[in-house]
Amino acid sequence: MQEFDQIEALWAKHTVDVKISADEMLKQVKKDVNGMRTRSLLNLAGMALSIVAMAMLWIFYDVQSWTTHAGISIIIVSIAVYTIILYNQHRLIAKNDFTANPNEFIASLKQYQLNRFALYNRLYWFYAIALSLGMIFYFVEILAHLEFWMQVLAIVVSFGWMIFCSTLVRKAVIKRDKERIALLIEKFERIGGQLK
Question: With contact defined as beta carbons under 8 Å apart, do 74 and 134 qualify?
Fold first, then answer.
């Protein structure tokens, strides 16, 4: 086992210096940036659809209790606030032309990276708490119309899904975003180094 660890350590130290032309690297970076922008737009579209779905639920469901109104309001407001935050982050990567001023774009990418970290760590918990509070208010009226086993199932599935997203999915997304943005920053810095 110790031999394997030594081989693994030797392999980790071994680096290959691959020379890629600035044009080829620029094409790769362009593809990565466009992919990041597209994912950001799809995320915004999904959030907007969530707001519309909740509004439609509010309009077409015959709401009797003030708690249901409060729950749906809290959910819509929290999704809207989070969507605005995501839109502001999207503007960081969408407003700059990376071919015109790479240093400015690197700075905006670094700012985007910091904002994403704050979003996934601090701001996410405010969002999750607001959604949970909204769901609790929403469930007061809705669960009264269901049988006991359906009530338990609805609560377990809803909060189980939120816990799953808050732990496993969130950590995977944080790791993937961090790696993707760090790689993009590194590529830009290499391009800047080759152009000097």
Answer: yes
Tell me, rounded to whole angstroms, the distance of Cα 15 from its chain centroid.
Answer: 32
**60-84 pLDDT tens trace:** 888 888 988 999 999 999 999 999 9
Q: How far is Cα 152 from Cα 66, in angstroms, rounded to an integer?
A: 22
**DSSP state for residue 98 in the 8-state scheme:** T
Residues 6+ apart with CB under 8 A from 174: 117, 120, 121
42-51: per-residue pLDDT in tens? 999 999 999 9
Q: What is the SS3 assignment for 126-188?
A: HHHHHHHHHHHHHHHHHHHHCCHHHHHHHHHHHHHHHHHHHHHHHHHHHHHHHHHHHHHHHHH
Measured distance CA(46)–CA(40) in Å, rounded: 10
Token code pair at residue 116: 């994403």
Task: Return the residue matching tokens 């990376």.
Answer: 98
Instruction: Please tell me whether residue 92 adopts helix, strand or coil conformation.
Output: helix
Among the listed residues 141, 135, 138, 129, the one whose alpha carbon sits nearest the alpha carbon of residue 166 = 129
